[in-house]
From TrEMBL:
Pfam families: CinA (PF02464). Signal peptide: none annotated. This is CinA family protein. It comes from the Bacteria. InterPro entries: CinA-like_C, CinA_C. Residues 22-173 form the CinA C-terminal domain.
């Protein structure tokens, strides 16, 4: 019997969660090998990335901490994103994600900063569609990676997919930094 769309979506979220746990372990291993640390700035994920990272034994050696800047004004007040940018572009913007990553990296005295901002749903936000997400990683020496994604599914699926992709991106930038 074919599975329902809801069953398929649940299966994908479970697969994403397992992959995210594996990606988090990889991130920690790469950071340990590089003698580096990471900090997170989360909006739509509300702490999921930090939770997955701290779910790995020994995380305290490489995870400095993070900020859950769910409200737009916290992106400015806590992470240093210019108010003018937020007023002009809104919170779901690649430059906002990039500045969140830099802000959390600097404020937490980490080597790498990882930031996510987007629309998990159920409704669009500031004219941005559900599933639109920007993920940014800021590394030492000015290395940066900012990407746009459109993730399908409901709120839970978008947040799960964002967490997985964010962890993969930080692993990729750490690899690029170390030349591995």
């Amino acid at each position: 019997m074919p599975e329902s769309a809801e069953e398929a979506a649940t299966g994908q979220v479970i697969a994403d969660q397992a992959a995210a746990q594996e990606a988090a372990a990889t991130v920690h291993r790469l950071l340990r090998e590089a003698g580096a640390t990471v900090a997170t700035a989360e909006s739509l994920t509300g702490g999921l990335i930090g939770a997955v990272l701290t779910g790995v034994a020994g995380a305290s050696a490489t995870y400095r901490g993070g900020a859950i800047a769910y409200a737009t004004d916290l992106k400015c007040g806590v992470l240093g994103v210019p108010r003018e940018l937020l007023e002009r572009q809104g919170a779901v913007d690649p430059d906002v994600a990039r500045l969140m990553a830099i802000g959390v990296r600097d404020r937490c005295a980490a080597d790498f900063g990882l930031a996510v901002t987007g629309v998990a749903g159920p409704e669009p936000q500031d004219g941005r569609p559900v599933g639109l997400v920007y993920i940014a990683v800021a590394g030492p020496g000015g290395d940066q990676d900012v990407r746009e994604f459109t993730f399908p599914g409901d709120r839970f699926q978008v947040r799960s997919s964002t967490t997985l992709q964010a962890l993969r991106m930080v692993a990729d930038l750490v690899k690029a930094f170390t030349g591995k």
